[in-house]
């Protein structure tokens, strides 16, 4: 397992920050070969188990509506019904929904990253009375189920005249405690000495946040950004309560409504729509993953 | 300037210095608040205020349409005597006790595995995240099919390897919760894996190299280098995982809706039922407050353990 | 810390002030000009009843326009509740489920509409009465009947239902159909009402739910378990694991009989026309009875759907809203609903003829009899306890039907829970 437990990722993206590191030239032992094979077997078995429901969703999206659930279980459609995709794309407001969802996800992710990482610096590096208690309040509110304060919140936002606008969802999601907590934890792993050195150079706290902490926390920012994006993209209950005007609907909301407007829930169509809605996230993930797996060599800055 | 911001300085008993120190303290506090304020403003208005209203409503018989009579702690007294509430608490704890350690181990293992240079690892990383982005409706449906006692692939495999009387899974009061735990772990692992992956990047490679040079084997490097380096991330993941486990809602709703009987009734669902199905929002608020304190206590304990370890 | 708390409490106070402010700011303005009323509905594309009533009413009263406000069908109650709480509810509130009527009424959201005149023979009006005061009027009242597939009966050589069936006849027929080659004799959907609604209406004339004593359901559950054990009926666990839809089970000829509400008539006709369902000959029969004494006027259950008026409506709109309620419940409303395949709360010969003249509808006499002649008891009695009790009975239903708890144990657990968690008068 040695090959698996030792991190060997290269710091390509941020090489200039780290020590230039020569490629590993040690001979590869048989033990490592075996470990590799085992690793692959585990990965292949795991990914079958992991992708199977998604695979079923995609094949079901090509079935006729009443064939989606049948006994015995049917994995592949007899004749692929590509028309399901055409129908959901052309006969629903898919483009509008995608546009709205994209606006929301981008805006929420941006605000969450900005305000979250900013506040996290205050919590992680500044000392002032009541800081820890305030932080605990932040986290504790995560524990309150949203459904239970949804109505007071809705009344509040209705009185502020933002319900039934995209602003409602942006405001709702952008200031979550989750991002503050995540970024604070990450900042605490960054050596204090770096900030000290910067203070000696006369940098203000804001400049330290901007020029040292932000670049060093790219993996954390990337994972926070991804998770926020996905959560906003897939949120259902929030948009359901706040976005009543069909021109404001998100993908999840629009799909559910489109499908329940048929005579009975047409799962084949629903899954075709859901498959379409997963694609943008899968692309973002595949393209963006190098940002949270590529190491930042903090040691290079210490000297 | 530099000494001004330095967090800790010794405190000599000279008055002008003290005055300067208190000025610095004030200045520090102002700077600290200026960092927190943009987020806090939104947080306070949109989350804190509604949550405080909820706290107040837990002492009333609020029915959502304005009129809320203060009834003291009657709601909490009623909670204590409510059999369904007790069932929900027990089920929630049962779920959490299984789900939290399992997810921690699986997601950390995945992160370690996928933090390597194996060929195709990018594909596997994407694959591991797929359960989290696949629609929860589709997930519930597929797993319901998989767990079908007579026709489901899970039991077919169990019978194939010689287990003659496989469990009824979602149709049995004993096995419904383990089945839910399997699915929720499967769904959440990619999510927490990403957080662990980010945490792994903070561990300087030199530490691993140094340990290797010192002759540490794989396990020793894992316990002496990787785990300590991951501590802030592990803390974060554990706290979030605990809170999210205590709040588990949507997956249960689509998979079992609390059944069979009350076998998988959890707290969030109890709250939802009391509030939106039975219109007892005051009582539901009291249950939310109970859940809040349950989480708060567990989180505080985790905080204290974390502080002691860091010290 | 103290200061922060003070700030937080101050914010909360401001918020609750805004909360309070929203509830009372409609200024009554007397105007005799055109009036526009908003009406809540759901799935407008496939639930044309709202538009039909709105158009028909506007034709008679050109001064009054009904504007539809669409809500998500499965979250209808949650969304309407949120809107009413925020003071932005519709003028006319459609009562989708009877079990929430008391919630709106006790919350002071519904206006007294006792003075709206209702035609004789309208069903379901009592469901909207609290202490003798009406808070809504019914316009639609589906009831439960037995759908059967004539082609599958023919193929298995089993006689069609003749209107005299008891539940034993039904079970025998299901077994005979299965033996005669049908995949399943019957399909019982997973809803608790498919078992409990019949037990409640036939054994207790609708009084059972609030009685706290559920022994009367035992024989109904035992029959259902027996039928799923001998394979003449799709079993509950398979149905839930495979998320079977009743439209698929009956429409794709997997089961030859199915107890279901009359709303399925319109769906089945539409699905046969669109090809989502197989094309076959079918009919509806009265639901089987306990014994032959009630076959002349079969006992079944069903809840009405109705319209109520928002208590906070602008006073200048009240008369117009009441006029709409009277129209929807009256004969003209009923005929226009029947013409689009909806079962109106008011049925008479003219309405029956209109309903069965729809293309694709069954034409036999028994179907007409089953649709129009019956004693309907409400599934949900109008009480603030109904929602909580139905939740407990729902848990009991999954415990029994999944086979995880015996009928006796599940019933006594439910009785204990109702006593302890809800309380009885």
Percent strand of chain C: 5-15%
CATH class descriptor name of the largest domain in chain C = Alpha Beta
Which stretches of chain B are poorly predicted, pLDDT < 50 over at least 5 residues? 1-12
Main beta sheet strand tally, sense and closure of chain B = none
- Element order of chain C: H for helix, E for strand: HEHEHEHEEEEHHEHHHHEHEEEHHHHEHH
Q: What is the number of independent domains of chain B?
A: 2
CATH topology of the largest domain in chain C: D-Maltodextrin-Binding Protein, domain 2
The number of helical runs of chain C is 17
CATH class of the largest domain in chain B: Mainly Alpha
Q: How many distinct beta strands of chain C?
A: 13
Account of the protein in words:
The complex is a heterotrimer of chains A (303), B (311) and C (425). Helices cover 68% and strands 0% of the residues of chain A. Chain A has 303 residues and is mainly α. Chain A folds into 2 domains: 2-82, no CATH class; 92-261, MetI-like fold (Orthogonal Bundle), CATH 1.10.3720.10. Residues 1-25 and 297-303 of chain A have low confidence and may be disordered. Chain B has 14 helices and no strands. Chain C has 425 residues and is an alpha/beta fold. Chain C contains 17 helices and 13 strands. A 4-stranded mixed beta sheet of chain C has the order 8-9-7-10. Chain C has a 3-stranded antiparallel beta sheet with strand order 3-12-6. In chain C, strands 1-2 form a two-stranded parallel ribbon. In chain C, α2 (49-60) links the parallel β1 and β2. At the A-B interface, α1, α2, α4, α5 and α6 of A face α2, α4, α5, α6 and α8 of B.
């Amino acid at each position: 397992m040695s090959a698996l437990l030792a991190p060997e990722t290269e710091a390509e993206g941020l090489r200039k920050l780290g020590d230039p590191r020569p490629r590993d030239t040690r001979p590869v032992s048989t033990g490592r070969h075996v470990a590799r094979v085992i690793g692959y077997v585990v990965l292949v078995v795991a990914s079958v188990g992991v992708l199977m429901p998604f695979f079923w969703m995609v094949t079901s999206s090509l079935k006729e509506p009443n064939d989606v659930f049948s006994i015995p279980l049917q994995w592949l459609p007899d004749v692929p019904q590509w028309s399901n995709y055409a129908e959901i794309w052309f006969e629903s407001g898919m483009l509008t929904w995608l546009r709205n969802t994209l606006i929301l996800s981008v805006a929420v992710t941006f605000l969450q990253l900005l305000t979250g990482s900013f506040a996290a610096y205050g919590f992680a590096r500044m000392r002032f009375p009541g800081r820890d208690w305030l932080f605990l309040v932040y986290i504790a509110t995560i524990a309150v189920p949203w459904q239970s304060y949804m109505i007071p919140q809705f009344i509040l936002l209705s009185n502020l005249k933002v319900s039934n606008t995209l602003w409602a969802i942006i405001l709702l999601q952008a200031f979550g405690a989750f991002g503050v907590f995540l970024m604070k934890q990450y900042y605490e792993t960054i050596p204090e000495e770096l900030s000290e050195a910067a203070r000696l150079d006369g940098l203000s706290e804001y400049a330290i946040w901007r020029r040292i902490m932000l670049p060093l926390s790219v993996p954390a920012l990337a994972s926070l950004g991804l998770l926020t994006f996905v959560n906003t993209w897939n949120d259902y209950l929030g948009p359901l309560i706040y976005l009543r005007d069909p021109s404001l609907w998100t993908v999840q909301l629009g799909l559910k409504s489109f499908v329940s407007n048929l005579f009975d829930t047409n799962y084949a169509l629903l899954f075709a729509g859901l498959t379409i809605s997963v694609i943008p996230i899968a692309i973002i993930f595949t393209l963006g993953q190098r940002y949270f797996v590529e190491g930042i060599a903090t040691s290079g800055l210490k000297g | 300037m530099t000494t001004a911001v330095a967090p800790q300085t010794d405190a000599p008993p000279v008055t002008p210095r003290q005055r300067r120190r208190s000025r610095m303290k004030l200045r520090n506090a102002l700077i600290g608040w200026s960092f927190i304020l943009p987020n806090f403003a939104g947080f306070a208005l949109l989350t804190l205020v509604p949550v405080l209203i909820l706290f107040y409503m837990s002492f009333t018989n609020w029915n959502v349409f304005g009129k809320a009579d203060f009834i003291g702690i009657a709601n909490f007294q009623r909670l204590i005597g409510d059999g369904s509430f007790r069932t929900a608490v027990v089920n929630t704890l049962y779920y959490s006790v299984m789900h939290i350690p399992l997810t921690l181990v699986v997601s950390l293992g995945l992160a370690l595995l996928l933090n390597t240079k194996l060929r195709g690892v990018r594909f596997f990383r994407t694959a591991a995240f797929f359960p989290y982005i696949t629609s929860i409706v589709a997930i519930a449906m597929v797993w319901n099919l998989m767990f079908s006692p007579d026709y489901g692939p899970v039991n077919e495999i169990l019978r194939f390897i010689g287990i003659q009387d496989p469990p009824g899974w979602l149709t049995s009061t004993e096995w419904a919760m383990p089945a839910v735990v399997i699915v929720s772990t499967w769904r959440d692992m990619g999510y927490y894996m990403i957080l662990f992956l980010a945490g792994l990047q903070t561990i300087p490679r030199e530490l691993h190299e140094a340990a290797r040079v010192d002759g540490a084997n794989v396990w020793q490097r894992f316990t002496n280098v990787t785990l300590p380096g991951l501590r802030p991330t592990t803390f974060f993941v554990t706290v979030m995982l605990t809170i999210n486990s205590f709040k588990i809602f949507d997956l249960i709703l689509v998979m079992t809706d609390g059944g069979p009987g009350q076998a998988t009734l959890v707290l969030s669902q109890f709250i939802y039922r009391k509030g939106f199905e039975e219109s007892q929002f005051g009582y539901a608020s009291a249950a939310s407050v109970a859940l809040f304190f349950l989480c708060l206590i567990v989180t505080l304990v985790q905080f204290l353990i974390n502080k002691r370890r860091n010290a | 810390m103290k200061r922060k708390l003070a700030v937080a409490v101050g914010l909360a106070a401001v918020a609750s002030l805004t909360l309070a402010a929203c509830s009372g700011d409609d200024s009554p303005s007397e105007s005799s000009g055109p009036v526009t009323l908003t009406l809540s509905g759901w799935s407008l594309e496939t639930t044309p009843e709202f538009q039909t009533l709105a158009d028909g009413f506007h034709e008679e009263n050109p001064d009054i326009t009904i504007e539809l406000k669409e809500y998500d069908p499965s979250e209808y109650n949650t969304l309407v509740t949120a809107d009413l709480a925020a003071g932005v509810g519709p003028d006319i509130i459609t009562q989708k489920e009877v079990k929430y009527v008391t919630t709106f009424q006790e919350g002071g959201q519904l206006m007294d509409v006792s003075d709206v005149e209702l035609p004789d023979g309208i069903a379901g009006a009592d469901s909207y009465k609290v202490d003798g005061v009406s808070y809504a009027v019914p316009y639609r009242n589906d009831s439960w009947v037995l759908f059967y597939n004539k082609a599958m009966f023919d193929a298995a050589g089993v006689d069609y239902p003749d209107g005299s069936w008891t539940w034993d006849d039904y079970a025998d027929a299901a077994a005979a159909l299965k033996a005669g080659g049908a995949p399943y004799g019957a399909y019982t959907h997973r809803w608790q009402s498919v078992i409990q609604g019949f037990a409640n209406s036939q054994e207790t004339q609708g009084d059972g739910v609030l009685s706290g004593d559920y022994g009367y359901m035992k024989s109904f559950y035992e029959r259902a378990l027996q039928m799923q054990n001998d394979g003449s009926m799709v079993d509950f666990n398979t149905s839930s694991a495979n998320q079977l839809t009743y439209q698929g089970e009956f429409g794709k000829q997997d089961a030859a009989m199915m107890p279901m509400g009359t709303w399925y008539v319109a769906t089945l006709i539409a699905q046969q026309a669109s090809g989502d369902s197989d094309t076959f000959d079918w009919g509806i029969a009265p639901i089987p009875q306990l014994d032959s004494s009630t076959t002349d006027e079969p006992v079944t259950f069903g809840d009405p759907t109705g319209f109520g008026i928002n208590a906070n409506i602008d006073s200048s709109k009240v008369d117009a809203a009441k006029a709409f309620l009277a129209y929807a419940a009256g004969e003209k409303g009923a005929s226009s609903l029947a013409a689009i395949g909806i079962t109106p709360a008011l049925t008479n010969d003219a309405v029956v003829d209109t309903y069965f003249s729809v293309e694709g509808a069954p034409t036999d006499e028994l179907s007409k009899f089953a649709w129009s002649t019956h004693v309907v008891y409400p599934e949900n009695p109008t009480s603030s306890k109904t929602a909580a009790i139905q939740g407990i009975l729902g848990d009991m239903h999954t415990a029994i039907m999944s086979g995880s708890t015996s009928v006796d144990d599940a019933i006594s657990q439910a009785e204990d829970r109702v006593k302890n968690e809800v309380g009885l008068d």
